[in-house]
Amino acid sequence: MVYVREAHPSDGWKMESNTKVGVEVAQPQTFEQRSQVANAFCTKLNPNIPVVIDELSDPVGHAYSGMPARLYVIDRQGKVAFKSGRGPFGFSPPELEQALAMSLMDQQTTVPSGTTSVTSPTLVPMDTEEAWKLLPKTLEGKQGPLPKWARVMVRHLPRTTAAMLQLDYAQRTKSPLEPLLRAKMRFVIAQSNRCEYGKAIALADILSAGGSLDDAKRIALGSSAWSDEEKEALRFAEELTLNASLMDDAHFESLRTRYGDNGVAAMVLLGAYGNFQDRVVAGLGVLPDSDEPTRPLDIRFVPEAFQTQPIFPESKPHENLLADGLDIVKDDGDWSSISYEQHSDRLEAQKKRKQRLPTPSWEEVSKKLPPSLTARPTRIVWNLVCMGYVPELAAPWSMTTRTMWAEAPQDRVFEELLFWVQTRSIQCNYCMGHCEMLLEVAGLSPSEISERLKVLASNDWSPFSEKEQVAFAYARKLTLTPWELTPQDYQALERHLGKKEALATFFWLCRGLYMTRVSDGFQLQLESDNVFADFATSTNSSKK
Questions:
Q1: What are phi and psi of 100, to 5 degrees?
Q2: What is the DSSP-derived secondary structure letter of residue 458?
Q3: pTM of the predicted structure, to 2 decimals
Q4: 175, 393 in Cβ contact below 8 A?
Q5: Of the candidates 237, 232, 220, 234, which has an alpha carbon nearest to the alpha carbon of residue 273?
Q6: Exposure winner among 23, 294, 356, 393, fewest CB in 10 A?
Q7: Is 301 helix (H, G, I), strand (E, B) or coil?
Q8: How many C-alpha atoms does 118 have within 13 Å on its Cβ side?
């Protein structure tokens, strides 16, 4: 604590509230007088932090603009890590506590070797003011500091970035889950992904919900330190992140009994979002900084900035597989241990799977959605379950992915092959089935689909172009070990795809880890027919 000049001396701007409690101090005219006041303060109030005295000319007071009171956190490098608003109205001890916790977490963080805060020279975060100029117009909310990932993505995908900001706000403020439990689950997800940024955001939410730094430290120790009250939900978050396809039905049913259908559905979507966000910041090389805004941005952008209806590709011919290509990707363990035929058998089994929550009807779901999302009915189980149980979380997600398709359209065959690699990596049968459906919608015949997927299921990817192989390898690494990503991995994407297409492809892959967590979390029953075909046909016909 630094004692500077008196804000309300008895011989200056005197406060009657001070007089009533017997505090009357004239403005000290010498350093000795100021020392006497400081000593009297320490004797009477016995503060448990050091008290130092500024010189009579107040060089520290002027440098830190501390009148009448202000809170600072100085890190171990001597840099300002946090500055509160000026007192009394900006004097907020809870914000100071959060800043101290963040600073301590930064000091305890061990950054994986090879990780850097800049993935690519083209992905340097923009200045906040410049970033806001690229974002769509706002209807509500204050244009304050932006998270680093947003200041990176906005350069190429401003509308998608805006949708992601609204999605983040929804996940962190509108979920039916109790806030402290939700924040603890998010911490476990980030810890499982070895994502320091995700842990920092989760810590901020823990503190905001009334938890403490000790809570986060305890959660970080693992299941042996978790309380009986929270253990079941935290273990669910961990398993959904690390072994979603192997999760036990009984565990889900127990959570359903305890938290209800909407509560357990929100847990699934939280796990999906956490795995999506952790991949975004890992791939972009975003690390937590002491000046990073940790609260969700309460802002609403103009509706016309976003795409609300799904976009399907027009059927068109595609290039044949290469007859004389080179396999440039190193083989990966047991990748070829499951043949394409075995994958097909698993898809058939998924069609008979009893899923963990009943599928609501479109009539039930449409009543819960804004009009912009009800223009066309859907039979897709994934959409019906998500929108039916937690529309407040599912609607912002759908708007985010559809906006990305509109802002950066790509070749759908390429996208679905990338997604297939992800579904194979974590053995998500429901999403793998959708890959085949969408490849058909994109114009491939059944024989062309099986031809490509048989190659992808093998360790020899030489029939694909070098560009495709590089992207497939990146998809597998981002899916299985995001903490091992290096700047060189993303730079390879940029060299082969171009800057904007690389970022769009990267977003698509992060999106895939959301989709698979939902599918495996609910163990959705795969539809028996192509549920995309009718909708895609009507969409394409309307364009002609």
A1: -60, -45
A2: S
A3: 0.80
A4: yes
A5: 237
A6: 23
A7: strand
A8: 7
